[in-house]
Design brief:
Length: 502
């Protein structure tokens, strides 16, 4: 598909056609026509086949209220999912993310200025990453190329960059290359983007649901701004529901009453796309009713399940396990059991949860209550022996016990300090008197000479040097103020005197 400027657009979905309608109306000389071609969008599987000489201006006229749309294009619109039909076309229609695109916000200022730099959008599914990229492309009136990290290889990336470079004029903004799920790109695929992004051949907009710090190579990340998209608020989602039933070309023809919305909001988990998909499903389930009255009961009956948002390999996996461990560390049993339930309901591996409990018992409770580690290990064994779903009970028992237990991380801090000391000081020799001397030669060399056997002394203790000669002044373990550790600290001070006095 070519326009009057000789620019090329390819892999254009029907939604992309709508996006460029505004451009056509703003630039009357820009006539995009289809010459007996079928254009496909490999990302979302939408295929559009338009008649010869069908001008985008016709579509533009429809959206600007200047003429009715043709029956063919109307059928194309009607066949799209609700989420696609309601996808915002302008920033004014865009829902949420006011910290980025609200009046005076950083991204809004760049868009208004007509120039943007490469950036990556990071946020959960259904918060508007793809939509925002498409709106920006339409606002800047620049070619918009899209690749899916799922289906595209290095060759596809290079082909896009080459085409974008050939079709760019000096006084124009760089074409936009949008890569959805950029975290799925391999290192070599991401490497192939570096030169084009640095030279400005393309302006990269990446979208990811995963933490870019872990999934995007550092050189590419350093060339892009990072913008975090927040989950949509309740007010945003309710506004989207009202817009759907009053403005959508299909739903507005039905008599729909949103009597209750709590279930809709709970099931969608802050995902606008899922919310609209659920709404569409519920309305279809009420097709035989003269009036579609949507209540929480109707939603639950239509879905038959609670599809909690939990990706065992994604960002939410790490967020929830982090909340779980921090709740235990913070001595909040209610929160700890809640996050445990979230993991269980989301299908988390029970052995993974049990392993984290063992780690928490050693790291966060430690010497303040050594029994915690025993109980965590017992819970691990119990889960393996009794299986699921009964395994949830010993996991809950261990979780509550750890959360309510006194805390100490002295052992955790001690081993980390010792490791740091080893790395800084290298291989310090073992003092001769605490070396073994299994041979006569070793004895002659002084191995084990002067060693004092503690059990031969009162209280099974006698002072002697155990640290390497160069490190005798180093303190590694510091007792903390829990009842159990206070006793240990007092014992060490009694044995070693001033060395363990603080």
């Amino acid at each position: 598909m070519h326009n009057g400027y000789g620019l090329s657009f390819y892999h254009i979905s029907l939604n992309s056609v709508f996006q460029y309608a505004a451009i056509v109306r703003a630039e009357p000389c820009l006539h995009v026509h289809y010459a007996n071609k079928t254009f496909s969008d490999r990302k979302d599987g939408i295929y559009t086949s338009l008649p010869d000489c069908c001008l985008l201006s016709n579509i533009a006229d429809y959206f600007f209220g200047l003429s009715p749309i043709s029956p063919y294009l109307c059928s194309q619109i009607m066949s799209q999912p609700l989420a696609e039909r309601l996808r915002p076309r302008t920033l004014d229609d865009y829902i949420g993310q006011k910290h980025l695109v609200g009046e005076g916000a950083v991204l809004r200022r760049m868009i208004d200025a007509g120039r943007i730099s490469s950036f990556i959008l990071w946020g959960p599914p259904g918060v508007g990453k793809t939509t925002l990229a498409q709106i920006i492309a339409g606002r800047l009136k620049t070619p918009f190329y899209t690749l899916s990290a799922v289906t595209s290889g290095v060759k596809d990336v290079r082909d896009v960059i080459d085409r974008a470079g050939k079709n760019r004029f000096f006084n124009e903004a760089s074409p936009i290359l949008f890569i959805d799920e950029i975290h799925r790109f391999s290192k070599s695929q991401q490497d192939s983007l570096l030169g084009a992004v640095e030279r400005g051949t393309v302006t990269l907009i990446g979208a990811t649901t995963e933490n870019p710090s872990f999934e995007v190579i550092r050189p590419l990340l350093s060339r892009c701004q990072l913008y975090v998209l927040k989950p949509l608020e309740k007010e945003d989602l309710e506004g989207l529901l009202r817009r759907a039933v009053t403005q959508d070309v299909v739903l507005r023809e039905r008599d729909i009453e949103l009597r209750e919305t709590a279930a809709l909001l709970r099931y969608c988990g802050g995902d606008a796309r899922k919310l609209l998909n659920i709404l569409e499903l519920v309305v279809e389930s009420l097709a035989s009713e003269p009036k579609a009255v949507i209540t929480d009961e109707v939603v639950v009956r239509s879905l038959q399940q609670n599809p909690l948002a939990y990706d065992k390999d994604g960002e939410m996996h790490y967020d929830i396990i982090s909340a779980f461990i921090k709740s235990i560390r913070g001595s909040d049993p209610d929160a700890a059991v809640y996050w445990l339930a979230r993991m269980i309901e989301g299908g988390e591996d029970p052995k993974f949860i049990a392993r984290r409990l063992v780690i928490s018992a050693a790291e966060d409770i430690g010497l303040a209550n050594p029994n915690a580690l025993l109980l965590a290990n017992a819970a691990f064994d119990a889960v393996q022996k009794i299986g699921w779903p009964e395994g949830r009970i010993p996991l809950a028992e261990a979780t509550v016990y750890l959360a309510t237990s006194p805390k100490s991380n002295s052992a955790y801090l001690a081993i980390d300090k010792a490791l740091d000391l080893v790395r800084r000081t290298g291989n310090q020799p073992v003092p001769l008197h605490i070396r073994n001397a299994p041979t006569k030669l070793m004895k002659d060399l002084g191995y084990n000479d002067g060693y004092k056997y503690p059990h031969d002394y009162p209280g099974h203790f006698t002072p002697q040097q155990y640290m390497p000669d160069e490190l005798t002044a180093e303190r590694i373990w510091h007792g903390q103020h829990s009842p159990a550790e206070e006793k240990l600290c007092q014992r060490m001070a009694g044995l070693w005197g001033e060395r363990y006095s603080n």
